[in-house]
Amino acid sequence: MQNRSAGNAQGIDVSHYQGTVNWNRVKNDGIAFAFLKASQGTSSRDSTFITNAKGARTAGVLIGAYHFVNAKTTDAAVKEAANFADAIASAGGAAAFQLPPAMDYEQADSSMSKADINAVAQAFLTETQRLTGVKPIIYSGSSFANNFDASLGVYELWAARYSSSPPADTTAWSHWTFWQYSDGSAGGVRPNGARAVAGIAGPVDLNEYAGTEDELRKAYAQDGDNGEDETMTDAEKQQMQDLADRVAALEERVNMSNNQTPPAWANDAIIAAKGAGLITTSNDKGHAELVMIQMLYNAGLCNAELVAFFREFSAETKAAIDALVKG
What we know:
Elements: E1 10-14, H1 23-28, E2 33-40, E3 44-45, H2 49-59, E4 62-68, H3 74-90, E5 102-104, H4 114-132, E6 137-141, E7 157-160, E8 178-182, E9 205-209, H5 213-219, H6 234-254, H7 267-275, H8 288-298, H9 304-310, H10 315-326
Parallel strand pairs: 1-2, 2-4, 4-5, 5-6, 6-7, 7-8
Antiparallel strand pairs: 1-9, 2-3, 8-9
């Protein structure tokens, strides 16, 4: 695969292992982008994901989310994708991330064949794209990546090789899009000759994009966006950030447990909705957000845009809106 090039955008990837990150110092130290650990397996979430997403966005660092795959079967892979999508929703939804979601698949159970590994990868990638609306990329070590067949070459590669020498070609790839060239202790060095990054205590994974920061921004611009966000005023950008933060806070609150009931202040509206025949019972839904969705749908106010919006919430919310639409 290709070597690194002068002028390529520099980035990092972080998880709870990095502790508290000062994102303003990270940005001022020349870091343009960051991949943030969101989730692992079918239920685990990284404890710093939401905080890191908010801090990096505010500092102007381009962000993407990644999920560490544990699945041994395609069914488990689909469930892991749901966990990943829910984690992304909790941090503002896919639209709040400038970089694509990444599947971190770097190890597998010894009982799994290459065919099993490819099936798990394809199941996770397909479901992640279905749930988030964004085509994912694949992160893997240069050795483990040899397990992937040519069909997975349609996904961009985030290659891990801690060295100043580039990763070797594999069956699926002869070109990397992102290269994790150091774990902060070994491997290549940043353009400034160091491995440390300001704002982070201790080592952190170092990455490079195969292009400039401007090219990185353009490569993953949302369809229909056409780069118009660059013409937004600072006040408009802050309004968008405030909205993303409010959505993230709402999603975090409504998913605190699996047995939430509507809050007391909603009782009058629920009683009125029952009397008008808009809903039959609040207990058949549980979450306050689902009661509201049912009310909107039954009143004929849940248009296509709202349906798409609600599908960005938790897996339970998506299931509820799908059931209403199909019904």
